């Protein structure tokens, strides 16, 4: 029985924009890793979706005002735990989802040292069992 | 079944789709029903032709099958509603299937044009116009279009059916547009085809194969439009622009999908045949007078493509062309490109002054492009620390992943060299 999981990658501890200051070689190694990782997961048929998100600079918080119209709020750059990107995978077991998350977490960072960034793994809810329909 | 005969049949089907739909529409008038019937006929052909061989007159075959489908539908509908006055349900099918022989070739050509104008109707949203054009004129299936735009098939099906309803509701008649109508609506048609091309050409994280199909499809439709309106300068200009741009595709991205800027592309990877065709097309068009935006852009692309090495680029000519383009359009992105060309001719500091003025205008505030251009010019001026800061700022602002990767790498390269 296949299960779907969403793997949510948080920005590294030193902040979302830290990659802006890495040396060129490290940036290239990181990009190579991420491209290869997505290719590999597609190859095994486990990858459903993978998206990187634009820098938090571009994000806005939206809330409906009393009139139902959106009120947008600035982004708070001091916040360190922005969602940086996500994958949705379909795997045979939760352990496999954890393994995939760990592999992504170990993506190379500055100086080729694994980032070991936090990746939140949450199961995607499935449809109701047939007898409930 | 070989790969090549598969693609030959596919090519045939796309080729005939708009004319078949045009013929059916002329007979039955109902856009939605006609379009559905033609899609069914195309599917039937895709299944039968590889097995039984391509019929002698493929278009007649498709028209016949589509007519039969639509007649069946109409008859079923008529029976259900007891609308026996519908003539179509009373005429024996054999009689309905007789194809008009008179001026068929000419009528077919006009039909394709009318269809394009219908699908790119200004009343439709751009997204709907694109989807409908690809389906009705391009003969792509809903699934193919959905794949190309990376949206679920159900979403695309919704978009197409809403577009069909809008057309049906708007009462746009199916008839050859008058010269005035052609002039009025041609702009919308060209814009839609340009957007289809751009969607296919812009590097993206998606499965690229399907996207390149889109630029190929845009070029095919553009060729068709050019055959229908050979005298129109902007039609020729846009076709030339697409050919001259698409010719560079193989050199535009590296092995990891990263962007490779024009000045460091391996020009041996450029498609010489497409460049030759595009240059010939734009040269012939420019000599006829009455310039438009697409022609000038094609001329600029031609100057780039004709340089054997980046340093051979005729920048004074490009600068002059951007001057013409600025007169034709008040677009701040054009002004930004004009600043780049100025820098190439008169030095980076002169270009930077233009960029600064543009920045003060505030029209490019939301765009990362201003930062990216500024960074390039600052680097050329030897002001490396400032260049790094602007590369980084551009990287933070862009929402394109390949572009972000490119800008990050530029910032880091320059920063490494400084350290």
Descriptive account of the structure:
- The complex is a heterodimer of chains A (133) and B (419).
- With 133 residues, chain A is α+β, with helices and mostly antiparallel strands.
- Chain A is flat.
- Chain B is mainly alpha-helical and 419 residues long.
- The chains are: A alpha+beta (133), B mainly alpha (419).
- At the A-B interface, helix 1 and strand 2 of A face helix 20 and helix 21 of B.
Number of distinct helices of chain A = 2
Helix content of chain A: 10-25%
Write down how many β-strands of chain B occur, each being a DSSP E stretch of 2 or more residues: 0
What structural class do you assign from the helix and strand content of chain B?
A: mainly alpha
Report how far apart the termini of chain A are: 19 Å
Radius of gyration of chain A: 18 Å
- Taken in chain order, the helices and strands of chain B follow as HHHHHHHHHHHHHHHHHHHHH
**Mean pLDDT across every amino acid position of chain A:** 85
Uncertain ranges of chain B: 83-87, 94-103
Largest sheet of chain B: none
Helical/strand content category of chain A: alpha+beta
Give a quick precis of the structure.
Chain A has helices at 24-43, 94-105; strands at residues 3-10, 47-52, 61-64, 70-73, 83-91, 119-123. With 133 residues, chain A is an alpha+beta fold.
Keywords for this structure?
heterodimer, A: about 130 residues, alpha+beta, four-stranded antiparallel sheet, two-stranded antiparallel ribbon, 2 helices, 6 strands, about 25% strand, flat, B: about 425 residues, mainly alpha, about 75% helix
